[in-house]
Automatic annotation (TrEMBL):
Gene Ontology CC: one annotated term: membrane
Keyword Transmembrane in record: yes
Listed transmembrane segments: 7-27, 33-58
Coarse class of the protein's main subcellular location: membrane
This protein's name: Uncharacterized protein
Highest taxon listed in the record's lineage: Eukaryota
Keywords from the named record: Membrane, Transmembrane, Transmembrane helix
Family per similarity comment: Belongs to the UPF0057 (PMP3) family.
């Protein structure tokens, strides 16, 4: 379970650099990350919106395995 401080820091990072916030949450070689990169290239605001969605609403524990490991994992 992720605590509130981690989510708050990820949201702040996602507002400044949307792909970095998604990378910290889901990992660098995931569909969520590359979709966020694409949306950020197409427009900064869509990248922020998707990053916030990916951080707050997408459950990473459901998709977590050894091949899609995020940068950190709090057990």
């Amino acid at each position: 379970m992720v605590n509130r401080c981690e989510i708050f820091c990820e949201i702040l990072i996602a507002i400044l650099l949307p792909p970095l916030g998604v990378c910290l949450r889901h990992g660098c070689c995931t569909v969520e990350f590359w979709l966020c990169v694409l949306l950020t290239i197409l427009g900064y605001v869509p990248g922020i919106i998707y990053a916030l969605y990916a951080i707050v609403f997408v459950d990473r524990d459901q998709y977590f395995d050894e091949y899609r490991r995020p940068l950190y994992y709090s057990a």
